[in-house]
Specification:
single chain; Jelly Rolls; 23 strands; mainly beta
Length: 271
């Protein structure tokens, strides 16, 4: 099964991506992406999942059974590089999204049995950090990190400039009951500026029983069931991706691939 899910034409609900544990061959992470027109309404039932709705681009009003978040959104493109508005929705809830402009909406989901209330995650609630150095730099927006309330979901968005790498040095988080790692499945929802761009992403394990390289284009999704998963951008095209992670323990704990860990050291960049 390919780890690359190509963007589809919008269905009757505007959905262009649909990743489930069943079609991904794993246990926890689900991801949908929608392109809605101004005035469109999307209704969802969270069932036994918690949701994190991320306004990738555009404006909307969001309502759940017990909460309303009218007229949210600020950026009209993810490449404005300002944190998004997001909404956390608990399990066994209903949500209605009304697009107040053309809207690109990501719906992240994972199993939940908790009792957290629906809440707005405003731009001021999002942790912003710069990581890396040399040609391994990226801007990170921590939307739903492991120190903020949720049952399973971890959600983050990353910007990588043309010609740079990210999710690098190669790292992995695929071991359960480990002192050094947590088991976290992961999706990458890719965007490019300008839109015809692409990146190169490799997913591989130490023993190479999994070793797949792919070229995600605009709005494609890469699924990472296990192993290392670095991304390399192409000259002329800036890259944005939205990561969704979930597993049995809600903690982001990973190990570096030994061969490339030196890129974190004072040996890099050289000269």
């Amino acid at each position: 099964m390919s780890l690359l899910a190509k963007a589809q034409k919008p269905d009757s609900n505007g959905r262009i991506q649909h990743v489930t544990p069943e079609n991904a061959g794993w246990r926890y992470v689900g991801f949908d992406a929608y392109l809605l027109k101004k005035g469109d309404t999307l209704r969802l039932n969270s069932g036994d999942k918690e949701l994190c709705l991320v306004l990738v681009a555009g404006l909307a009003s969001v309502k759940t059974r017990n909460a309303e978040f009218p007229s949210i959104g600020r950026r009209m493109s993810p490449f404005e590089r300002i944190p998004p508005y997001s909404v956390y929705v608990p399990h066994n809830d209903e949500v209605e999204v009304v697009a107040e402009s053309d809207l690109e909406l990501a719906v992240c989901n994972a199993p939940s049995q908790g009792n957290l209330p629906a809440r707005l995650i405003a731009p001021g609630d999002v942790g912003v950090e710069q990581r890396g150095k040399g040609h391994n730099k990226r801007l990170v927006h921590n939307i739903l990190p492991d120190d903020k309330p949720a049952d399973s979901l971890l959600v983050v968005e990353v910007y990588t400039n043309e010609g740079d790498t990210s999710s690098y040095p190669s790292h992995k988080h695929d071991q359960e009951d480990s002192e050094n790692e947590t088991y976290l499945e992961e999706t990458y929802y890719h965007r490019f500026d300008p839109e015809p761009g692409f990146a190169l992403q490799r997913v591989y394990t130490d023993d190479r029983s999994l070793d797949e390289a792919m070229a995600p284009y605009n709005r494609d999704v890469v699924t990472v069931p296990r192993g290392y998963h670095p991304v390399a951008t192409i000259a002329g095209y800036n890259n944005y991706y939205l990561n969704v992670m979930a597993g049995p323990v809600r903690l982001w704990k990973f190990t570096w691939e030994k061969d490339h860990a030196w890129v974190n050291s004072d040996q890099y960049p050289r000269g």
